[in-house]
């Protein structure tokens, strides 16, 4: 028999970025909020304390700050005819766990989407004709515009102390920024970070090729910072432990640093760690949620009744919870019906590595997660897709989140994996090489989707989420095109050796190799309840007192990192809850 | 000379007479005048002005136990002769002060006399509270009688063994060292600036800053209760392992180089642009008291503290010197202390010892780094410290401890470097001192593992 | 094989190399995390495995010595204490599969889906070593892997790496990848874990270890980073 807790106004599932934003906004509005986080509570002290936190074996092998797959994971397959097998070891993507979620171990790249990213489908149709979109590609327009989100992009950057340089400020082009970005209402809260060698040389190479390089917007503070909530950040010291690690220096924005200090003082907020939510409970009408059921820290089944349920888990697990709870109709790729699980997309990440002689002090161990240099000349409407032969662009960038020998040392082409030649290879490469990356968009397709696995179960007896995903020709062409451009650019710098990993025709998705944690879609926002799980306020079409903010809402993924967009969408949804829903609970958009 | 005289008998008789005299002296009733003003009815503030005074006087610091009901007492206070427990000051009639009249209350608060005539242990800072005005005492009484929830919670029996548990000698102490009930009340007219006068009242009176920050005589009374002496607030003993810093105008280890706004920020948020509060004792004061005072009162306190000249002798100096920063930035390390700084501290405090404004404290010229008694610094390095989160500064910024990483000798070398780098000029730290603080920490950790009550 | 059997000549040689390497090393890595650093480092004696049996230990010593041999570039795996690291690492929850999804059914899948077997790391190594020794004894005149000439050992490792070695019970490639991974971890880990003695592997490549503080060096182009590595225990390399 489940223990039943006193009812609260809102229950939040997951205490990462979206959960923390929702908790802040809803407690501001006077609601009583309980947040349930499946992992442990975490804070800079003691969890990310120097020097213990910068232990590569703990962080990048034992995955101390990531989700353990032992209890919960997904299964994966390439196509609907295959049998899915479990994602048994962390590889392709790294969901977080614990208070702060993936927001503790992200890098800090903090982009806004381009104006045209919001209406991708109609923009492509307009520019190249409807036939340019191949059969089976299910890209869609977002049901919100850049202008809807601009104040929220802006606010989230303020919360994060994002360091960068505006390229277009209130319509005026600004030197040093991205000339192709959508207009900003304000300059970044902090100036750009300083350039390590790879980022500095990127300017040279990109300019020589006629591109317009600019500093990557980074939520790694370039100076001490006080955010609008009174939370403090210290300047990044380039420690080189962003990805996989919590920040030791209060420099990387995270829910823990940027929002939770305020929440922890609030009387109308309660955080319960080690609370594993099993499902959302619905009433007999199946159109109203009554709360959630979870296992508490002792493993005791507990029910938390609430008027409002906010699914703020990692994108994949939001979809999982919707499917397990029977909220919305599961997507069926054969009948092309249903909504939950539809339009799963990813990120098309590729790398080129440049090797120099030992006079070049690249020092890859000097690292900053989000800081670096990029350009948008091959992204959005700057790219002639008809000429390039694919839909969706991407960015090429210099990034150096910090390398260490256990995280892996890239060696020049031809160097073996062991023996004396390998030793010489790592010795030559470690301080004298760096890499640039191509981060491409990833379109959505009828055959790439999420549903429940028929065979495998998690430690709580629930079916695992099943991921059906493979690369399509469009993304492989994009990879080849963009990596080709990157290699061309690198030649300007005359490295002694150069390697690149463009995807080859027919290449399949390899889940063992880390690429990106930008898993998107599955419970997308849209204007049609037949093809989307959420309306424009991230509210479930089917159960209006359930909201599901996160990258699960993206109909497809653009060339940027999703966190800026995820934060802005969450503030947008929170505003709708505060200003519309609380006054008149119910569907905010009529189906 | 009488041969039959027994000198020891004479001595004993004299001693008995003295003891009897002392006993009578102690037990002779102290007359305190009746308080003039009765509390006003109908307050504008939610808890009445008394609620604010209770915050300014930080009553909760001792009278609210962690996890206990507000003001229900029971907090264990360690003393050299045994543990004493704070009393229940809620208006509960059985275990609290529900039966106290205003005069009873006044005698306890300002004069250290309980309702039964016994003298309170001077853990209760009545020597400072004696400066409070009649009006404030009346307001405070009103707050405790009418705005505080009564809680039935008898105080635990004190752990002081007989004969030390006898109260009457405390009465002697009170009569000898606490201000006489007939002493003139706080005299604001001493100050030409009303802001400074208000600050002096808060610091010397309800704020009882001197209880920790003023050195004590051999007989344990504070050496001064107001700014008439350069001993006042010149730095007190080590409390819970942390040094109560010198609040006078000494430029190195005092507040000489602090601005008024540095002081205001520190009282409001436990941090300012360059320095932070270290240790739990003052953090608690900030959380429970100073962070909740009005801007005007914090400014008043700051303006008063800035009137206090340096204490007699400067035990440390600071004259900014770029040599340390230049050497470290170039990777040059003059000794093992410099190496240890690079290997442990520079990650946050930077090679220039400047930290980062508002976030990571500056070491160069930091009074805690320069304090004559380096215990806080040693403890900080061994065990770390975190800032409290408050409404105005919610970030609980903290420094981890390095005691697991550094030997006593290494901590000594490191701190000797820190106390002589960037222009800091303070005495070195010995491995012996580090060993002592480490042993204290170990003892505290062991005590936490086996709580006595 | 009898565990008490006297060490072969080659094994003795390996032990000697290992012991010398260890003697040269500061023994910070052996200290438990809660221990305070000792004022003088006790030299690590000859490490005695507590996870691997004698046959497995011989295999580990031999394989590590081939994967990261002694040469002019830097320490060998044996000098760096890699076998000690692996022996200790096998006893962690990680090597027991605590962060892997370990539920069945275990079915064959394309290599893009990763290892789909039922074994955690420690058993992948054990089963793999046993299978390779069995393979050697069958095809190479009854010798174990450790008893082969270096060139023969290298040939076998190359075949395993390329997926060209057929073994009973295990994919040779999966075994090789785990063994190489563990060897590299032991080579480059913090000395606390038993490998990377004296931070010699960090020094070889110029990794500053646990410093995590490069404020002053982000924009320096004309000088190499000057400070030596520091480890978790606070020792300098």
Give an overview in words:
The complex is a heterotrimer of chains A (591), B (453) and C (237). Chain A has 591 residues and is an alpha/beta fold. Chain A is built from 14 helices and 24 strands. Chain A has helices at 17-28, 44-47, 56-61, 102-105, 120-128, 146-160, 197-208, 255-258, 260-263, 315-325, 385-388, 420-430, 473-491, 563-581, and strands spanning 3-4, 8-13, 33-36, 74-77, 85-86, 168-169, 172-173, 214-215, 225-226, 232-233, 269-272, 276-282, 289-295, 301-311, 342-345, 348-355, 368-375, 394-400, 433-440, 449-457, 463-468, 497-500, 520-522, 546-547. In chain A, the strands form six sheets. In chain A, strands 1, 2, 3, 11, 12, 13, 14 and 24 form an eight-stranded mixed beta sheet that branches. In chain A, α1 (17-28) runs parallel beside α14 and α6 crosses α14. The model of chain A has no long low-confidence stretch (mean pLDDT 97). In chain B, the strands form four sheets. Chain B has a two-stranded antiparallel sheet with strand order 1-2. Chain B has a two-stranded antiparallel ribbon with strand order 3-4. In chain B, strands 5-8 form a two-stranded antiparallel sheet. Chain B has helices at 7-27, 48-56, 59-63, 102-111, 126-129, 134-146, 168-177, 194-204, 210-213, 260-269, 280-288, 295-305, 323-329, 336-344, 346-349, 367-370, 375-383, 408-418, 431-449, and strands at residues 76-79, 82-85, 238-239, 242-243, 317-318, 384-386, 398-400, 424-425. Chain B is globular and about 70 Å long. The model of chain B is unreliable at 41-45 (pLDDT under 50). Helix content of chain B is 40%, strand content 5%. In chain C, 39% of the residues lie in helices and 0% in strands. Chain C is built from seven helices and no strands. Chain C has helices at 9-24, 54-67, 82-89, 121-139, 150-161, 172-188, 200-205. The termini of chain C are far apart. Chains in contact: A-B, A-C, B-C. At the A-C interface, α3, β5, α12 and β20 of A face α5, α6 and α7 of C.
Unreliable stretches of chain B, pLDDT < 50, 5 or more residues? 41-45
Tell me, briefly, the overall form of chain B. globular
Name the chain pair with the biggest interface and residue counts per chain: A-C, 64 and 60 residues
**Number of helices, where a helix is a run of at least 4 consecutive DSSP H or I residues of chain B:** 19
- Overall, the morphology of chain C is globular
Oligomer: heterotrimer
Instruction: Please identify the structural class of chain C as seen in this structure.
Output: mainly alpha
Q: What separation lies between the terminal Cα atoms of chain B?
A: 59 Å
Pairing-aware structural class of the strands and helices of chain B? Answer: mainly alpha
Mean pLDDT of chain B: 90
Q: Which runs of chain C of at least 5 residues are low in confidence (pLDDT < 50)? A: 1-45
Please compute the radius of gyration of chain C using only Cα atoms: 19 Å
- What is the strand arrangement across the widest sheet of chain B? 1-2
Please count the beta strands of chain B (DSSP E, at least 2 residues each). 8
Portion in beta strands of chain C: under 5%
How many whole angstroms does the radius of gyration of chain B measure? 24 Å
By DSSP (H or I, 4+ residues per run), the number of helices of chain C equals 7
* Measured distance between first and last alpha carbons of chain C: 40 Å
Got a strand count of chain C? 0
Mean pLDDT of chain C: 85
